[in-house]
Amino acid sequence: MRRTKPKPAPGGKRARTRAALIDAAAYIVGQKGFERTSLEDVAARASMTRGAIYGNFKNREDLFLALAQTYWRPVAPPLTPGASFHQKMRELGQALVATLPERRARAVAAASFQLFALTNKTLRARLAKVNGEVYRLAANHVAQTTRAGELPMPPDKLVRALHALTDGLTFLHALTPDLVDEGVILAAFEAMAGDKSPK
Question: Helix H segments across the chain?
Fold first, then answer.
C-alpha cells in the first residue's frame, strides 16, 4: 500500500506566515513607530512580498490590530472555580502583577499603538468592534460564574472598568513604578470588590 503524506495541520503554513509578518511588524514598529511603518518595510523584514501581507491581512490597520492583539493580550488568568468575587479580584490583580515585566517592556509600543489609533478613525472603529465582542463574551462569563449580589456594578460595565483599570495601572507602573507599585495594584483590584469580601 502506498503511503501518503499526512495533511498539514489546518492553518499551519498560514498561521506561520501570519506570525512571521506580525513579528516583522513588531520589529519595524519598535524602530519607527506605527505611523511611519509601511507594508513595504514589513514585507522586506519578513523576506516576503506585499502580496503575502494582503493574503493574510486586509490592510495596514488589520495588520496593526493583529499585532496589538498578539503583543498586548488581556489579563485573563484561570480563576478559582467557585471563588468569591473578592477572591477573583485578588487573583486578577496577582495575575497582572505577574505580567508587569513583560508589559513594561512593551509599554512604549502599546502607547504608540493607542496614539496611532486615536488619529486613525478606521482603526478606532475596528478596535471598538473587537473590544465590544471581547466585552460581550467576558460579561456573559462574569454573569454565569459570579453569585448574585457580589458585583459592584452590572457585568457589562464591570468588564469595561476592569480593562481600563488594568491598562491604566500598567501604564502608570511603567511610568512611575515607585508610585504605582505592586501593592497599589493589588489594592486597586481588591477595592473593586468593595465590602463584599468573605467575613
Answer: 12-32, 39-45, 50-54, 60-71, 85-105, 107-118, 121-145, 155-175, 182-192
